[in-house]
Amino acid sequence: xxxxxxxxxxxxxxxxxxxxxxxxxxxxxxxxELQEPLRAVTGAPWPRSKVAxxxxxxxxxxxxxxxxxxxxxxxxxxxxxxxxQTAALVLEPIRLEELTA
Length: 101
Hints:
There is one protein chain. The protein is of the alpha+beta class. The chain is built from three helices and four strands; from the N terminus they run ααββββα. It has one domain (2-100). Helix content is 43%, strand content 16%. β1 (68-73) and β2 form a beta hairpin. α1 (2-15) packs antiparallel against α2. The two termini are 24 Å apart.
């Protein structure tokens, strides 16, 4: 994971990308790369669904609303997995001022 996040910063420097856009891309990349190792450890899709029972059984319907995302809004990086009311996980926003201070 470290090398792919480093690549995002190297690419941003090379292309003159603004820092806030670079931080959003890096956050999104981290979320994407966390999923597979955690799925391997838990033996189930991660993050777990808000609507599917835990542990998952063969007969359980699995919510697939786990797509990672990160956006810059109101001076903060908002990020999580899934959208709307059935989002699997929405994290606390990260204020840009905390990252660039």
